[in-house]
Amino acid sequence: MNFNKLKKLSGDASFRSFYRKKNFNYSSVLVYSKKQKKSNLLIYDAINNLLTKKNLLAPKLINHNYYKNYIELEDFGNLTIFQMFKKKKINQLFYYKKILLLLNKIQKIKTTKIKTFLDTEYKIPNYSKKKLASEANLFLQWYLPKFIKGKKKNIEKKKIIKIFKNLLNKLIYKKKVFVHRDFHISNIMITKKGFGLIDSQDAVFGNIAYDLASLIDDVRVRTKDSLKDKIFNEFIKKNKQLDRRKFKNDFEILSVLRNFKIIGIFSRLSKRDKKHQYLKLIPYAWKLIENRINNNIKFSDLKTCIDKNFPKKVRNYEN
Q1: pLDDT tens for each residue of 74-86
Q2: Alpha helices in 169-243, H assignment, sequence order
C-alpha cells in the first residue's frame, strides 16, 4: 500500500495515522500504526465489531494487513459533534440528550470476550482502582517535575499518590458497566445512519460514572456550568436506579482524576512525542479540576496540596 498517494487525515493523540482511500463507488479509511499496533488496530477493530453487533454505529472492517501495520475501515466522513458545535449555534442540550441515549446503550453491553480478525480471543479488561491510580499518576510523572524540583519533588509526589488512593477508596458504585473510556464529542461522528462512535480501543468494564465525566468535563470543549448540570440531571433522569448523591460522589472523583491523567498525557505528548499542540488545553483541564474540588469537603486535602504546589500562575501556564 502506497500511503503517499492517499489523502492524510488529521490524527489524534495516539500513534495512529489515518488516510482516506477513494475506491470506485465509495471511500474508506486506512488506519496505520506501527507502534502499539495491537491496541490501535487489532483491539480497535474487535471493539468496533462488538459495538456493531450490539446495533451501535462503529466503523466496520473492510480489509486488513496486520503484518504491514494497517487496517481498512468504513469511512464515517469528517464531521464530529465537536466540529458541528464549532460551526454553528445550535441547541447543544438537544444533541447531548441524544448522546446520553447512546451512552445508555453502550452501558448495557455485557460481552467481555471478543474474537479478533486474527482469530485470537480478546478479553475486555476491568478498570481497577490500581489502573485508575496509575493513570492519574501520569500527572506526577510528566507534569509535576516541571514545577517541583529536588527533594521536595518526591515528598509532594508521595502526598499526592496517597490523596489519589484515598479518593479512589471513596468510590461507591462497585457494579461494572461497559466504559468507552474516551467518550466525548470529538469521538462521536455524525453520519447518515446516526451517531457513529470512534476511538474505542481502550474500552474497559468500570464505574458507571466514568464516561459521563468524560462527556461533561471534556477538556476540548468549554461548556457553561448550567449546561453541565442539565446533562448530569438528564442522565440521572434516564437512570432512576441511581442514588443521586452516591453517583455524584463517584462522578466528581472520576472527573478530577481523569483530568489529572489528561494533564499528564498532554505533558507526555509534548515532551516525549513532540506534539506540543495539546499544551494549550492544560489550563482548562486545571479549571475543570478546580470546578469540582472547590468548596467540596472530600477534596479538601487535594485542594490544599494543589494550592500550595501549583498556584494560579502555574495552572494558567501553557508551555
Answers
A1: 999 989 999 999 8
A2: 210-216, 225-238
Digit-coded pLDDT (tens) for 114-134:
999 999 999 999 999 999 999
> Mean pLDDT lowest for which of 53-62, 98-107, 310-319?
310-319
> Over the chain, what is the mean pLDDT?
94
Class of domain 79-315: alpha beta
Q: Return the number of other C-beta atoms located less than 10 Å from residue 233's C-beta.
A: 11
pLDDT recorded at residue 319: 60
**HSE value, Cβ hemisphere, 13 Å, CA-based, for 97:** 7
* Helix or strand run (H / E) with residue 204: strand 204-206
Residues 306 and 293: beta-carbon distance below 8 Å: yes
237, amino acid identity: K
- Burial letters for 251-288: b for 16+ Cβ neighbours within 10 Å, e otherwise? bbbbbbbbbbbbbbbbbbbbeeeeeeebbeebbbbbeb
3-state SS assignment for residue 295? coil
Helix (H, G, I), strand (E, B) or coil at 80: strand
